[in-house]
C-alpha cells in the first residue's frame, strides 16, 4: 500500500469534496480518498505509487487544480 498527500486549490464546499473524491477514486489502484476541505489536503491510499499526472488529470476533471 502507498499513501500520498496532495494540495488541491479552489475547493470551497462539500460538493467540491465529493467531486474531487469521485474523480480520484476512478484512478486504477486507488483504495481510499480522504479530503480535508479546511486545508485543501487530499490523501490517497492506493495499491501502488500513483502517477502525479493521473492525479492531476483527475483533479482537473473535477474542476480544480493541484497546487504547484
TrEMBL record:
What CDD domains does this protein's entry cite? HMA
UniProt entry keywords in alphabetical sequence:
Copper, Metal-binding
Q: What range(s) does the HMA domain occupy?
A: 2-67
Q: Which InterPro entries would you find in this protein's record?
A: Cu-bd (IPR000428), Heavy-metal-associated_CS (IPR017969), HMA_Cu_ion-bd (IPR006122), HMA_dom (IPR006121), HMA_dom_sf (IPR036163)
**One annotated GO biological process:** copper ion transport
Q: Which Pfam families match?
A: HMA (PF00403)
* Annotated PROSITE patterns: HMA_1, HMA_2
- MF GO annotations: copper ion binding
**So which residues are the signal peptide here?**
none
Q: Origin, by domain of life?
A: Bacteria
NCBIfam families, A to Z: copper ion binding protein
Q: What is this protein called?
A: Heavy-metal-associated domain-containing protein
Annotated source species: Kibdelosporangium aridum
High-level lineage? Bacteria, Bacillati, Actinomycetota, Actinomycetes, Pseudonocardiales
Amino acid at each position: 500500500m502507498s499513501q500520498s498527500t496532495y494540495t488541491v486549490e479552489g475547493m470551497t464546499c462539500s460538493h467540491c469534496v465529493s467531486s474531487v473524491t469521485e474523480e480520484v477514486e476512478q484512478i486504477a489502484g486507488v483504495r481510499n480518498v480522504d479530503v480535508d476541505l479546511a486545508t485543501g489536503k487530499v490523501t490517497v491510499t492506493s495499491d501502488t505509487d500513483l502517477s502525479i499526472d493521473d492525479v492531476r488529470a483527475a483533479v482537473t476533471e473535477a474542476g480544480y487544480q493541484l497546487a504547484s
